[in-house]
Amino acid sequence: MDETERIATSPSSKGRETSEFLMRIVRTLSHSADFEQREKEKARIDKAYKQSDKKLGELVTAHYEDLTKVTQDFSRMSKCINDSRERITKIREDLSSCKTLLHCKRDELRRLWIEGVEHKAMVALLDQVELIKEVPVKLDNFIISKHYLHATDLLVNAVAKLEKPLAGIDALRDLKAELIARNEQLHETLIEELNKQIYAAVPDQSVSLKRSSSYRRGSNLTKQLSDPECKQTKPTELLKPPEMMDLNKEIKEDLNGNPEENPAHFIAVLVEALFVLRKIPDSAERNKKMKDPLGIKSKIEPELSAIVARTSQQVVDSYAQQGESLSSQNQPRFLLELLENVFHQFRNVARMHKIVLRNLQRIIPTPEETVDEVSGVPVRNELLYDMNDVWSKIQAVLELVLREYLDVQTSSRQRAPTSFDEPSTDINSYFSKKKPTKSKKISLFRFDASIHAMSTNSYVDDNMTFDTGNLFHVNLLSEVGLGKHQMVCKPSVNNITAIFMPLEAFIKEVEDAVACQDGTSSLQSFVTEFIQNIFLGQVHATVSSSIAAATKGLQIIISGFDALRHVVDHKTQKDLGVTRPLLTSTVTVDRNIRKLQELMQSLPTYGDQFLNMICNILKEYRDTCNSAYRGIVQIESDEKRVISATWAKDEDISRFLRSLPSWRSLQMSERQDLSKKLCSEEEIRTLNSKEALILISNLSSEAIIPQQEIITDVTQMRTIANVHESLEWFAGRLRQFCELLSARSPNSMNSIELSTREYPPVSDKSLESLKMLVKDFQDLAEICLLLLHLEVRVHCFYFLLPVAKQSNYAGPIDDLDPDSNVLKLNKDLSAMEEMLVQSLQPQKFKYIFESLGFLVSSILMSSIQYLKKINENGIKKMCRNLFAIQQNLTNITMARETDLDHARQYYELLYMNPDDVLSLIVEKGPDYSYTEYVSLFQLYQKSHPHIKPANLDTLLHKLEEVMNKTQNGSST
């Protein structure tokens, strides 16, 4: 297909390509010089046109119907256009004609137009009047449903219309007055609702009144405490933290929802409504008027007081039995319960106030936007109040409550000492009468802007301090219509112990929330001043009277009058878990110490002060016990003491006695470690002989022991036993206390398990003082036990030494009874056994009388040197002495004293002559020492004068040889 055909068959190229084709043809024909060439080109073009014409004919034939329809439509449209042109021409002519006619009636038309505008304005005013008439009904509906923002917008817009657009309508004058009055009523309603949201918020469900099973009537108390109308709300009503509130977010109100579902949003709505009512003035107006238009700040104190009164009433209703009053009962747990619920509600109040203040910050302009109208100087905007005002009022109300329940007025006469630094201070300084120190008055907060202050003459002075406990219920609660509030317990200084920990925790919250200038809140200052100036003085007075009575009782014991009257009864023993009597004075001091320990746990902030008080009390009692001990063991008014006391205080003798197995077994028995055997029987016998040897060497040399150097009154020995048991028990309890304190010490690595209520950390100095005092009590207890141990043995010397030195053992046949001193010793031992068995524990009683038979046998065997002569009757008498003592000791120790058999056999050797004794030694070996055999031979020689001294020397020489031979033989 050539180019012409291609162009003809391409409908899309009829534009630009066709024009280019024609221009090319023209150029070809015009530039061709050859005629034949032009003819040829012409022929080709003719042929192409013919083909195009033929093609057109075919197309027309193929689309004849469509072409006919298009032609008809075109004709019809052309006719319509022509008709329209004719009509427009006619309208133009008519308009020209109208213009001419209207020009002739211009004044008439202007009058009619003005009347139309007036009628339209009248209709619009009538519509507004109809809407204004519906405002009271709509307003009531909004208020009933608590959609206060819509109600405020509606009321403000209605009043604005009545004051300007509709101001000239006399018929709306009454409605205008009504809406203006409703404006004030709505303001009061908003303030009332805002205060209700602040002070009647439902507390957390986790905080409830704790009660025993016998107090089930108070199960709904928490719900009643939160709202006087007992209004229930959903538990999902959680407040968004005020710090996270978006201040730029527009406050909207959903007419389809419950406005109180979200208290934070509801408060924002109320504040926004007050702002719309223009009831939140700027700082310039406040500085001029010095008022509280919202009434929020002035109602803080009465509302907080009402919360306390309402909570107190609920506690009383829940716990008071019919016909009884809690105010006369000493039940500080009710006060604790009251304060815990009040604290929780006060926290909610502070949280609500913080939300209110955040919304006020959103509404009140910034400092740059407020300018004084008179001076034109920018004025810094401040809120109507701040959180410092809220916390200040909370502290003030709580202080009034505490003043009343802590009985500040009654107890203010007692003052505590100001220094507890030295634990060694004389305790009398705590209990002596002191001049009351002048307390520093602290201004808690000011009432000069409150209704209460303006109506009460007692608050004219801005710096006045609250000094009366009756102010709380007489003035504050009466103003809120609740009258005198109910007391939940009896006012007492000691109530502080039950409430101190939660009170301190709440004060810490207050101090964290309020930036105090000196770092201490006013409530903390009050609590600190109360404890230091009143409570500690009360504790001192109580402890003083109790300790004085206990010391007086101990002084009676010292004098030896009716000692049994000054030990605790069996019921107290059972309660204390002890098996032997304890001194009443010790138990009294222990109870006072326990009270101070409880105070350390209840008031941990003052742990060091109480510990120093404990140390001073212990020091005073230690001195008293030492005086009592000296009163028993001291000989009249001289410095000389009884022999056993002197030896018990001697370091060498005391150290030796403490090293003996009998003493160590006592220490092991306290630890219940009895499975380990300390020494063999042979070692024990050797140590007992060493003890007997020391005692004999110190006492046998004397002619006779004076009676004043022993304790002749066995009741005093019982007193010493009671002192020992009491002080050992007391030292054990104090030692446990030291371990608990050591576990709380900052430098301690002790992993001891602590009690449920831990002791506070204390200073190392006080702790060391306490440990030294515990050691002093333990040492005195051990000295008392050593004294009893030694005193029994000194009594043996006192009665047995005269047996050999003063009695006659070469008498007639009829003198066969035991020596009178032996009988006295048995009577004395029985009396001591009767007294000590009731006062000492079994293992200690055993320690007192254990190995006593060995000592008696040693005394009587060593006393053979003091006998001038002895016959068979004398030998029988000595054997009867030993047998009598053996029987008595067996009854006391419940064990056969074989050592006395050994002594009796020793004296029975006197029946034999020395040669037979030597033969017996050679045959069976020596049963006694060389010295004992020598004393035996010497007495035999003195009792038989026919034996010359030369023969005695020969016997002694043989004895030495036999002893050496037997010892060498036994060694090989």
Output the keywords.
972 residues; mainly alpha; disordered N terminus
In short:
The chain is mostly helical.
Q: Can you tell me the overall shape?
A: elongated
Number of strands: 0
Oligomer: single chain
The proportion of strand residues reads under 5%
- The structure class reads mainly alpha
Distance between the termini: 155 Å
Helix/strand layout:
Layout (H helix, E strand, L loop, with lengths): L2 H6 L7 H16 L3 H28 L1 H41 L1 H28 L1 H10 L3 H16 L9 H27 L21 H6 L36 H14 L6 H7 L6 H24 L12 H32 L23 H19 L2 H4 L16 H4 L19 H5 L15 H9 L16 H18 L8 H38 L10 H7 L7 H19 L4 H27 L9 H7 L1 H9 L1 H10 L10 H19 L14 H31 L19 H42 L14 H20 L2 H8 L2 H11 L9 H22 L4 H11 L5 H11 L5 H14 L5 H23 L1
Could you please describe the fold and organization of this structure?
The chain has 972 residues and is an all-alpha fold. 66% of the residues lie in helices and 0% in strands. It is built from 37 helices and no strands. The model is unreliable at 1-8, 202-239, 282-290, 416-483, 559-565 and 748-756 (pLDDT under 50).
